[in-house]
Structures are given as structure tokens and as C-alpha cells.
Amino acid sequence: MKLRPFGSVPGPRLLALGVTAVLGACSGKPVGGLPATAASAPLPHPSSVSHASSAAAASSADDAANAARKTAFVPPAESTIPEGPYGDMVRLGRAIFTHTRENAGAYVGNGLNCSNCHLDAGRLADSAPLWAAWGMYPAYRKKNKHVNSYGERLQGCFMYSMNGKAPPLDSKELIALETYSYWMAKGAPAGTKLPGAGYPDLPKPAQAPDFARGKTVFESHCALCHGADGQGQKVAGAYVFPPLWGPDSFNWGAGMHSVDTAAGFIKANMPFSRDGSLSDQDAWDVAMYMDGHERPQDPRFTGNVAATRKAFHDNPNSPYGTEVNGHLLGSQPMKK
User: Fold this and answer.
1) Which residues, 6+ apart, have CB-to-CB distance to 237 below 8 Å?
2) Under CATH, which number does the domain 78-184 receive?
3) Can you list the pairs that 171-175 forms with residues at least 24 positions away whose Cβ atoms lie under 8 Å?
4) Sign of dihedral through CA atoms 56, 60, 62, 66?
5) Span 199-214, mean pLDDT?
6) What are phi and psi of 146, to 5 degrees?
7) Where are the domains of the chain?
8) pTM for this predicted structure
């Protein structure tokens, strides 16, 4: 992982897995697989030619992703943050982003930092960097069915990914985060999706994402950092590797709960220091394993899991309200 932690804590680069996401924390990308990979998965009429073709396609996709990351926009060096009130607000935004509970604790309900999902303090391509997000707002979001300002988008992060509450739009915390994002996007074109924006969109896997295969991947590639139980690791009371599920992780409303989003994050950024080493299939499987565990309830919960799924999670990539490993997800949400 290309983590450049703020201070001495490496946790910011991971969120959900290992998300971190955060998914990531310990791994810089999806968790790799001992089970069948996208390159070796059986086909209707397997042959050495078809396997070679599949492997070549996977290699080509990885090469394309690496090329995109290399050609992505390069944000200003942190050493260029100016002195004075404006620079102070940029630095405060960075501090909130990397040590969120410490600097915006009134709005945080779990143990994560913004930088667990947006790695390298929000600078890294293919981990939803801030420099790529800033210029794309205002924008319509299907999630809340209206045009959102950038500040509203940040409010959603606090409500769902941080399992907390939305800071007021005129709060010092949101203004600092907006200022940090604006500074980081200096020189980037507005209204254009830049290479490295968001998380990569992975092709549909050869096999449907599988909880059991994902567990094998997790045990081999993620548990070292995130723990065998997925609850992360702490040093001096602070997470250095974030929890991927459970009461201190993101809630069921966070984007990382969606298996396709988690798989893209993991593929591009995990395992830690070995990002890109997992096959697409492994990324999908370990994302299914991570998102197949309970976590805090979606704040939009209607009082009924089926109704909440129909209203907010009615898509094949959301495991909420479905039965995984014998458990109806969302029926026993985690609480601290």
C-alpha cells in the first residue's frame, strides 16, 4: 500500500477491508484467492486456449488499471499548503480526514477515519480521491434523489461510513473538509471524471461472489492485519487497522456495504502493500465475505428489514435483507 500516514498511524489507508472498506486496512487490495480465480475458473467448454485467453484478459485489465493510476491527476504536495488562515483551514481538513474521531468526534459513531476508504489522506488514485470528487459536484444522487452539493455529499459520509450524524453545512468541520478538497483539486478540470476517480469498476466475476471462498481469501490475505474476527487492531486505543464489520465499522447505509464497491476498492488497494495482487474473482469473493457480516443498522431503517431493502437496497450488489451463511443480514444489527 502506498500509505503516507498522517502522523505515525498507518490506518488511514485502509477502511473497509483491508477496507479497509476500509475495507480496507491490512491489504491494499482485494483479498486474493486460493479458490478458482477469474483466470482459472471453469468455463462451459474449458480448454488451454480459453484459460490462456482468460488469463491474458485479466492481465490486460490489471495493466490498464496500473496505467490509469500512473496517468492520474497529481495533487499538490502537502509542503505547498500555504501559511495563514486559508492554509490553517486546509490543514484542519486534513487532520479531520485522517484522524476523524479525534477532530470531529461529535459527528462520528465508530472507530473509522475518512482515510480508511480514501487512502493516502485522500490523495491516492482508485481509492476515491478527493481531488477527483471535488469537481463533480453539484450532482444528482440516486441515493437521496436530489442534487447534492459537495457539502451534502460529505454529510452522507458522516451518517453512513462514520455511522454518526451529519455536521451542519456551515460547521467548521465541513468547511475544513471542503477547503482541503478544493486545495487538493487545484489545477484539476471541473465537471470531468478524471482517471483514478472513485473505485475501479470490476467486470462481472466468472462465478457469483461466494462467502465460503471469500473466507478462505480473507484468512490468507486479510486476517493478519484486520484480525481473524475482522475487528481490526488497535494501538494505544486507536485503530491502526480498521474493523471491517461489527459495531465499530461502517453501517448498512455506507457505499462500502455494496459488494461491487467493496470489490473495486479491494482489487485496487488491498492487501496492504500488495495492491493489485488479487484476482478479480478473489476480490469479489472476499468483498462478499466482508459484507456478509452484520454491522450497524442503516439510519434509514423503516422498522422492517424487507421494507428497508425494498426502499433503499433493491439491487443485486446489496446483501442487506438477504440470507448469507444462514443469517438474514440487517435483522441483528450491531450496536456498541
Assistant:
1) none
2) 1.10.760.10
3) 172/92, 173/96, 173/103, 173/104, 173/107, 175/89
4) positive
5) 98
6) -160, 170
7) 11-41+200-328, 78-184
8) 0.81
